[in-house]
Write a structure and sequence with these properties.
Keywords: Cell membrane, Glycoprotein, Leucine-rich repeat, Membrane, Phosphoprotein, Receptor, Repeat, Signal, Transmembrane, Transmembrane helix. It is found in: Cell membrane. One of its GO terms (cellular component) is plasma membrane. Belongs to the RLP family. The chain is of the alpha/beta class and about 950 residues long. Among the domains are: about 140 residues, Ribonuclease Inhibitor (Leucine-rich repeat, LRR (right-handed beta-alpha superhelix), Alpha-Beta Horseshoe), CATH 3.80.10; about 60 residues; about 240 residues, Alpha-Beta Horseshoe (Leucine-rich repeat, LRR (right-handed beta-alpha superhelix)). The protein has nine helices and 60 strands. The protein has a 31-stranded mixed sheet, with no helix packed on it. The chain has a six-stranded parallel sheet with strand order 16-18-20-22-24-26. Strand 2 and strand 3 form a beta hairpin. The longest helix has 25 residues. It is globular, with a radius of gyration of 38 Å. The N and C termini lie far apart (about 140 Å).
Length: about 950
């Protein structure tokens, strides 16, 4: 007994000492691991103080670091800082409304993964996903033999080291969404414990034996290889691949697979429960294969080539009663009625978006249905009465972009579980009353835009929901800001453009939300001065405000510092308040078409984030501020149609970024030399100013230039011969980089207008001043009209075969029209009028099949007007003022010219036969005749031989004729 108690005491003492020793070590981490982490930190580029906690002696309490309590060694490193959630489609639809950060803060790590990470030999869990790490995965990472979870997804990594094959304990590997390139996947065969593998959105196009490599991972249960460019499966090699009894989730979307992929799918797993084959090239032959996949729970076949009637596919599913998710959207099914899905009694999510479904909207009994997407079809008729017993579980309903008409049934308000409801872009009418919304307590996203619906809600209504997004454009909200919005404290998106709202902005607008990311009240009748409280509105990190096309007036006040895009065009703002420069964080600023007058504030050096500035169509005056030259990140500046004068300040600091310049229709002075450092310009429009000097040859070095409009200035000299070197105008395939600024509606469900950094441009086109909206880089034009240019039209200009408009009118150009002008086969508008051009109109004009406008008037052109192609469509106004021209459509008819004498002689030979021609012809005849025939007449033997030869040739020739 004593011995036993003594033994127990010893054990207890030992445990106490051990635990005490362990607790002492828990207070500090291993020194080697701490030093390794500090080296790792040096390789990262990080802002927002992400790793500010990485100091002090105990690395176990640093952010993202976990240690073993007994040894103090680092066992887990989790440095994923971004928690943004994207809801892309029904593949990712959650049962409840997710928490979404539409514009996440730049809380990510950059730089590279330093090899010091391999000194953390006790790591079992490593997560560096959702950052911006570059370079290669360190090869030494294969030495982390205890690693079970490795997550490096959503970075910019380049290379998969073969050393990953040494991670024999690895169970979870996520390398998806990188720039990784691999030539083989043989290293996978060594990962015998791997259960989860994600290689999606990497470049695996060279891995020809990928099916064989994947089959060597014996216990793999989840596989994601979507959007990898995988080669097609070779059916002959499939018989040598063993089937897995574990693979349950398989994603192969976005690989351009044809239907042969199904033979591998059926071979690799008999128990697959989730199968994603969307965004491939599967055709009708695959559908019969699903009668053998009886374990299927979720099936995604969207964006393929399924073209039979939709109803023909449904009987083939042997798992119909167990199927929970079915996605068939974006397939070219034959037009047919909505099938009866009652057989799919377990169905929770059904997407038939853009499947050519027609007819009335009829539903079977689907008691478990949570998500239904029937958008982008041709459903017509009225909305049915929604029986609550049939749709008690419905969370997500999208019927947008159809032809549904009539009134909104009250029963839709009984779907108390709805958090997403979209009926936009239909033909619905009538009122939205309290009965429609009284029970929608979970509603988060409400889209009724582009209908003829009127909100008829009690102003004192306290809605049962807290919306995250409201889309109601083109509906009628009333004559003032809806008071019920005052209760919406979680709004992030408010799209109420063109809703007939009048009056002024309410003072309470700043209280509706603490995270307002997007507000669009454009195309209404709002008036008055913006309230000062507007600058106090709490907004999201990068928000968009669109107040354009209203009657707002007064001076411009500062806006909240987090406003990212600010659209205030087409109002009656009159000037800038002294505090305006506090709006210095804005990136897109549109103040065009207002009543702004006076000089601009000279504080633009504060606007270091500014990329787009549009001040066009105002009454601004004075000099262009010198501080414009400090806008180092500026992409687009529009100051056209104002009263600016003086010389343009130096924009040298902007040369790396500036793409679009429109200073047209002002009184600016200077020379074109000012712009030659802007090597990335796409649009240069200086028309209607007082620019002097010549066109420098260095303008030909701006290879990206697509629109050059320097018309109506005082420019002299000649058009440079090198103008044909501008590749953007000569390359038919050249397209500008299209710079997008976040969608005006941050949610991915909607496209409410994407802001480009140049949306419109004013050009003289086909003889008229036209405003081109949504300019996307397809316009290519040169306009140097109404200057004092002289010399000939450069021959090289005909190599700019991408040009759509060429205007050289109103100058002093001489010489001929280039004979090969027909090479400009994309020309739609050509104006060479009011010059001193002479000679004939080239016949190659008949090749200009797209030419809709031609003006050659008031030159010295002569000869017959060619016929053929578009030349037959122009009237006399295209040729008036050329006294030497003749032929249709002019009344002056051309004299008859025989075919032998009607040949066209190029340039200086393109005249009537001259005296020198007749003289040379006479001399040639005289010499030739007396050199040959004279000899024959004088010397009879030679004459006899000649005539004897001539007769023999004549006889032989006649005998040889048929």
């Amino acid at each position: 007994m004593i011995r036993s108690r003594l033994y127990q005491l010893c054990v207890a003492t030992f445990l106490c000492i051990f635990l005490c020793h362990g607790s002492l070590h828990a207070e500090t981490c291993a020194e080697t691991d701490k030093q390794a982490l500090l080296k790792l930190k040096e390789g990262f580029v990080h802002g927002m103080n992400l790793l500010s906690s990485w100091n002090g002696d105990d690395c176990c309490i640093w952010k993202g670091v976990s240690c073993n309590n007994l040894t103090g060694h680092v066992t887990s490193l989790r440095l994923r800082f971004s928690n943004s959630t994207r809801v892309e489609d029904l593949n990712y639809l959650l049962d409840t409304m997710p928490d979404m950060e539409f514009f996440g803060a730049p809380t990510v790590l950059g730089g590279k993964i330093d090899s010091s990470i391999c000194e953390l030999q006790h790591l079992t869990f490593l997560d560096l996903s959702h950052n911006y790490l570059q370079g290669d995965i360190p090869k030494c990472i294969g030495s982390l033999g205890q690693l079970t979870h490795l997550k490096l997804a959503w970075n910019g990594l380049n290379y998969i080291p073969y050393a990953l094959s040494n991670l024999s304990n690895l169970q979870y590997l996520d390398l998806g969404k990188n720039n990784l390139v691999a030539r083989d996947l043989d290293w996978l065969s060594h990962l015998s414990t791997l259960r989860y593998l994600d290689l999606s959105r990497n470049n695996l196009g060279a891995v020809t034996d990928w099916p064989s490599s994947i089959s060597k991972v014996p216990f793999l249960s989840e596989l994601y290889v979507n959007d990898c460019g995988l080669p097609q499966v070779k059916p002959k090699s499939i018989s040598h691949i063993n089937s897995s009894t574990y693979l349950q989730i398989l994603s192969l979307s976005g690989n351009h697979f044809d239907s042969s992929i199904m033979s591998w799918v059926l071979n690799v797993s008999k128990v697959v429960r989730v199968l994603d084959l969307s965004h491939n090239e599967l055709d009708n032959g695959i559908i019969k294969t699903f009668n053998t996949l009886c374990q299927l729970k979720k099936l995604y076949l969207g964006s393929n080539k399924l073209s039979e009637q939709l109803s023909d596919y449904l009987p083939e599913f042997c798992s119909a009663k167990d199927l929970e998710v079915l996605n068939l959207d974006h397939n070219p099914f034959g037009k047919g009625l909505l099938p009866d899905f009652s057989l799919f009694s377990s169905l929770e999510r059904l997407s038939l978006q853009n499947t050519s479904t027609v007819g009335p909207l009829l539903f079977g009994h689907l008691p478990r249905l949570k998500a239904l997407d029937l958008s982008l079809n041709n459903l017509n008729g009225s909305l049915p009465v929604f029986e609550v017993t049939k749709f008690a579980s419905l969370h997500f309903l999208d019927l947008s972009h159809n032809k549904l008409s009539g009134r909104l049934p009250y029963s839709i308000g009984q779907l108390s579980n709805l958090w997403f409801l979209s009926i936009s872009s239909n033909e619905l009418n009538g009122d939205i009353s309290q009965e429609h919304v009284s029970n929608l307590s979970r509603l988060k996203i409400f889209d009724v835009s582009k209908n003829s619906l009127s909100f008829n809600l009690n102003p004192d209504l306290v809605p049962p929901f807290q919306l995250v997004a409201l889309y109601a454009s083109s509906c009628i909200l009333g004559h003032q800001f809806p008071l019920w919005l005052k209760q919406q404290k979680k709004l992030q998106v408010l799209q109420i453009s063109n809703t007939s709202i009048k009056g002024s902005f309410p003072e309470w607008l700043g209280d509706i939300s603490s995270n307002l990311l997007y507000i669009n009240v454009s195309h209404n009748k709002l008036s008055g001065v913006l309230p000062k409280s507007l600058s106090q509105i709490k907004t999201g990190l990068m928000s968009t405000w669109d107040f354009s096309f209203n009657n707002l007036s007064g001076p411009l006040l500062p806006f909240p510092p987090s406003v990212f895009e600010l659209f205030l065009s087409n109002n009656r703002f009159s000037g800038f308040a002294s505090s305006f420069c506090e709006t210095s964080s804005v990136t897109y600023l549109d103040l065009s078409s207002n009543a702004l007058k006076g000089p601009l504030p000279n504080c633009w050096e504060k606007f270091q984030r500014l990329e787009v500035l549009n001040l066009a169509n105002n009454s601004l005056s004075g000099r262009v501020p010198e501080s414009f030259g400090n806008l180092q990140g500026i992409l687009s500046i529009r100051l056209n149609n104002n009263h600016f004068f003086g010389e343009i300040p130096s924009l040298t600091l902007c040369k790396g970024s500036l793409r679009y310049v429109d200073f047209g229709d002002n009184n600016l002075e200077g020379t074109l030399q000012t712009w030659l450092d802007l090597e990335n310009l796409i649009v240069l429009r200086l028309r209607g100013n007082r620019i002097q000097g010549s066109i420098p040859t260095s303008i030909c070095n701006i290879l990206s230039l697509q629109i050059l409009d320097i018309s109506s200035n005082n420019i002299t000299g000649e058009i440079p011969q090198c103008i044909g070197h501008i590749s953007a105008m000569s390359d038919m395939e050249f397209r500008i980089e299209t710079v997008f600024y976040g969608t005006s509606a941050p949610l991915v469900f909607h496209d409410s207008g994407i802001g480009l950094y140049f949306e419109e441009i004013s050009l003289t086109w086909k003889g008229r001043n036209l405003e081109f909206e949504r300019f996307l880089g397809v316009l290519k034009a040169i306009d140097v009209s109404n200057n004092n240019l002289r010399g000939e039209i450069p021959e090289s200009i005909t190599s700019l075969d991408g040009l759509r408009s060429l205007n050289l009118s109103g100058n002093n150009l001489t010489g001929f029209i280039p004979d090969n002008i027909g090479r400009l086969m994309n020309l739609e508008s050509l104006d060479l009028s009011r010059n001193h051009l002479h000679g004939r109109i080239p016949r190659s004009f008949s090749n200009l099949n797209f030419l809709g406008y031609l003006n050659l008037s008031f030159n010295n052109l002569s000869g017959m007007i060619p016929t053929g192609g578009p030349l037959n469509t122009y009237d006399t106004t295209s040729y008036v003022g050329n006294t030497g021209l003749c032929g249709s459509p002019l009344e002056n008819q051309c004299p008859y010219v025989s075919p032998q004498r009607g040949r066209r002689v190029h340039k200086k030979e393109d005249e009537l036969l001259s005296f020198e021609f007749y003289l040379s012809m006479g001399l040639g005849f005289f010499v030739g005749f007396w050199s040959v025939c004279g000899t024959l007449l004088v010397k009879s033997p030679q004459g006899y031989a000649y005539f004897h030869w001539f007769i023999n040739v004549t006889i032989l020739s006649s005998l040889s004729r048929p």
